[in-house]
Amino acid sequence: MDPDPAHDRLINRCLDEYAATQHQKRAAANAIQDAIAARLDDDGLNYHAIEHRVKDHQSLEQKLRRRNPDGSLKYADGLSGIDDIIGARVITFLQLDVERAITALRNSFEVIAHVDKTAEQREKGEFGYSGQHLVLRISEDAAPNGCRHHIGERFEVQFRTILQHAWAEFEHDIRYKSAGPVPPEVNRAFTLASGLIELADNQFSTISNVVAAEKANPDESTRLLPEDLTGEALERILEHSLPNNPRSRIEQYEWLRELLETHGITTVAQASELMGSADWEGIARRIQYKFAPGHVRAADDLLLVRYGQEHIDKTQTLGHDRNRLGKLNHRLRRLRDEPGTQR
């Protein structure tokens, strides 16, 4: 136990304060996860999983008891100095998807801090934990849908590839469950594994780029596709039409098929003609994307350009996004800001 009575009193006050607000923290954490998923899905980005948690009583007490190397209290200001009481994690397949997810969330929340653990390791010439952390705040000026009741809430989001996540979870499990100091050979093994994971992540990115270039070949992209339109066929068509845009989640292509069906587009030939004749650069110029959108988001905007209000009327209730109507209206206004909209 901490021998400092004043510190003990501070910790007890903090824990009492936290106990009184824990229910609100859980509600905020749920709203934050929903907002993160909605933003990534709305941008058509691909990811493996989104997780969230709220610190439990024991974990918070352990953190409050930490001291700096000089013996001073690390969290002398109590709860106001802790940014990860609410924590979320975005796990992606590729490193580039990490960067895209970070950009998306930087435009949804107020950024308090950004720590790139991967870059820090690289600058030191070391291997170890990799990932990026954002400390964010729900601002009053631009609170995402569902977060209006949690203005001012701070939280941390960790971004990792699926390989970085596996390393971090296993390493954490070994160290925290160890009865004593971890043997040097275990530390060395974790360091070696970290280097291999960085190499594997780089190779996955190379593979993705090579495959995207191959699928951009029109002879290869559609020659074996069935006549009837499917989610898989749409993925292949968009990989050809938008080779430099990120792939969306698999289930989103099936949702896009439903959108197209409302406009009578039900065959591969019809979809290929629509996507192949699109003015993608013109759409991007009018929308002013912060980064290249995923396939499905780009195609949804194409349908807005082509069908306008009709697309909103026919598809506003399709899918799980309860705020789709407002988003479509906002995007249609942006698309109509510049003359020469494709019809």
TrEMBL record:
It comes from the Bacteria. GO terms for biological process: guanosine tetraphosphate metabolic process. Residues 52-182 form the RelA/SpoT domain. InterPro entries: NT_sf, RelA_SpoT. CDD domains: NT_Rel-Spo_like. Pfam families: RelA_SpoT. PANTHER family: GTP PYROPHOSPHATASE-RELATED (PTHR41773), RELA_SPOT DOMAIN-CONTAINING PROTEIN (PTHR41773:SF1). This is PpGpp synthetase catalytic domain-containing protein (RelA/SpoT-type nucleotidyltranferase). It comes from Arthrobacter subterraneus. The lineage of its organism: Bacteria, Bacillati, Actinomycetota, Actinomycetes, Micrococcales.
